[in-house]
UniProtKB/TrEMBL annotation:
First-listed, main subcellular location of the protein, grouped into a coarse class: membrane
Record keywords: Membrane, Transmembrane, Transmembrane helix
Keyword Transmembrane among UniProt keywords: yes
Matches recorded under Gene3D superfamilies: MFS general substrate transporter like domains (1.20.1250.20)
UniProt-annotated location(s): Membrane
PANTHER family, A to Z: MAJOR FACILITATOR SUPERFAMILY (PTHR23501), MULTIDRUG TRANSPORTER, PUTATIVE (AFU_ORTHOLOGUE AFUA_1G05010)-RELATED (PTHR23501:SF39)
GO-annotated molecular function: transmembrane transporter activity
Any Pfam family: MFS_1
Membrane topology: Multi-pass membrane protein
Membrane-crossing residue ranges in chain numbering: 36-55, 75-95, 102-119, 125-145, 166-184, 190-210, 237-259, 271-289, 326-352, 364-383, 416-438, 450-474, 535-556
Disordered: annotated segments: 564-603
Protein name: MFS general substrate transporter
GO CC annotation: plasma membrane
Source species of the chain: Coniophora puteana (strain RWD-64-598)
Amino acid sequence: MTRIPFRKSTDITGAKEPKETLSGSAESKEARIKNIRIFVALLLPVFLETLDYTVVATAQSRIASDFDALSLQSWVGTSYLLTSAVFLPFFASIADVFGRHFGLQFSLLWFLVGSAISTGAQNMITMLVGRGVAGVGAAGLLTVVRTIMADSSSISANNWQQSGLFFLYAVGFSVGPVIGGYLIDVNFRWVFAINLPAAVVAMLSCAILLRGQVKKGKPLQQLPNSSKDRSTFIQKVLLLDWIGMLFFILGGILILLAFNWGPDDGWNTARVIVSLVVGVGLLSLFLFWEDRLRRIQLKSTSSTPTVFLAFRMLPLEIFRTFDMCVVQYCCFVSGIVMFVMFYFVAIFAVIVTGLPAAQAGIQLLYFAPGMGGGSWLTIAIIKRTKEPKFSIIPGSVLLPVSLGLIQMAMKQKNQGMVNGFMAMAGVGVGMTAGSLAVQGRFIEPDHIAIVSALMLFFRTLGGTVGLAQCFTVMDSKVKSYVFDQIQAGALSPSDLAALVSLYSSQGGGLSSLTSLDGLPSDVQTIIRDAYRYGVAWSFVSLIPWAGIAAPMSFFLTSIKKKDDPKETQGREEADHDEGRLGDDNTGSAERIEMTSRTHSAFH
C-alpha cells in the first residue's frame, strides 16, 4: 500500500469539504477561527463538570452534617460518580444518533435539573437523588465534549484540543477545592446553586457558537419498510439500544458499588458478593446482546423485528485491534494513578506527617502542575512527530517509576520528596491522557463517540479499582504492623491497653483524627508509622498495573499507516451519502453493517 503524507486539515466539524475551496491561507484562517469558536463554546461545560466534582468533594462533610447524616457523607460523591461512569456509553449513542449539539444541550439539561434538586433539597435522600441526576449530565458533558474535540481528522488539531482539554481539567482540579472552601463558608447550597446560572449560560453559548458547526445526527433508515428520506425523532428514539443500555447501566452500578463497599466490608459480606456476581452476570448479558445484534443485523431482512435493528451501544469489533486494547488499558492505569494520588497522598500528609487538613490539601497541588506540564509536552511532541505514541511511551514509563519513588519517599517520611515525585507522576498522566485520546481517535475513526466514552469509562473504572485495592492493602498492612508491635511487648501496660482498646472497638481501628490525637504519644507514633507503612505498600501494589502498561505502549502502531487515501475517500462518500442508506431492504451484509455504525470521515 502506498504511503502518502498525512493531511493537515484542521476542520473539526465533520462536514464534507466543498470541491471549490478558498485559497490555502484563507481556508486555514477560516478553519482556525471555527476551531477557536468551538473550543471557546466548550470551555464553560468543561469547567462546570470539573469544578462541580471537586467543589462538592470539599464540601460533602459539611453537607452531610447539615442534614444530620454524617454517616452518608461518602454517598454525596459516590452517587455522582456512579451515574457519571455508567451513562458514558449512553451519551455516545445520543451524540451519534441525534448529533453533537443536541447531545451537549441534553447533557447540560440533566446537569441543570440535578443541581436544582440538590440546591432545594430538604433531606439527604433528595440531595443524593440530585447528585445522581447531575452525574448523568456530567457523563454527557464528558462524552460529548471529548467527541466534538475528536471529530477533527487533523492530528495537529486533535493534539492541541485534547491536550488543552486535559490541561483545563487539571486547572479545575486545582482551583475547585479552593472555591468549595469559600462557598461552604457562605452556605452549602451555593455549592450547587452556582451551577444553575452557569449551566444556563453554557446552554446559550453552545446554541450560539456550536449550532450548525458540529456534526449532526445520523439519518437512520433501518426500520423495516422505511421509505422516508429522514428519520423522525421517535424513530431515532426507538432505534437506541435500550436493552443493551439497561444491562450495562445496572451491571456497571453493581460492580462499582461492590468495589466501593469491598474495603470496608472485608470483601466477604453478602452485599459485596451479590453485587459482584449479579453485576458480572449483567455485563455478560450485555456483551452477549451486543454480539447477538451484530449477527442478526448482518443477516437482517425487512421482516426483522425493530428491537434487533437497534443502533448498537458498543460495537464489539472495535476491540479487534491490539492498539485499542492497549489504549483502553492505559486509560485504566491513568485512572488508577489519578484517583489514588488525590486520596492517599492526603492520608499520608494528615496522618503520617501530621499536617493540618488545609495544608494537606495544598500538597495535592503538586500533582496538577505536573499534569499541566505533561499536557504541554504532549502538544510539543505530537506537533513535531505527528505520532501520539511518542508521548504515550515516555508517559507510561514515568508512571511505574514515579510510583516506586513515591513509596520510597513515604517510607522515609519525607513530604518534600513525595511532593516532587507526585509532580513526576502528574507529568506521566499528562503525557498519556491527551495522546491516548488522539491515538484512540485514529484507531477507530468510524466509532469516535463510543471510543471516547470507553476511554473515560475505563479511566473511572481504574480509579475505582485502584482505590478499592489501595484501601484493602493499607488496612491489611496497618493492622499487621500494629499487631506486630503489640506482640513485640515494647509498650507500657497503659499504652498497650489503649492500643488494644482502639482495635477492639467497633470498626477495629482509627475512626477519626480526634481519636488519634487523644491517644498517648507512644501509641500515636505506632499508629503514624503503621499508616506510613500501609500507604507506602498501597503505592507498591499499583506498580504491576503501571508496569504492564509501559511495555505494551511500545507496540502501538503508527497512526500514519492508517492514512490510506482509498479508505479515506470511501468514508467521506459514505458519510455524504448516509442519508440514502437503507432505501433498499435487500439484506446486503455490507450495507446493513455500514448503517449500523457511526460514520466519521477523514476530511
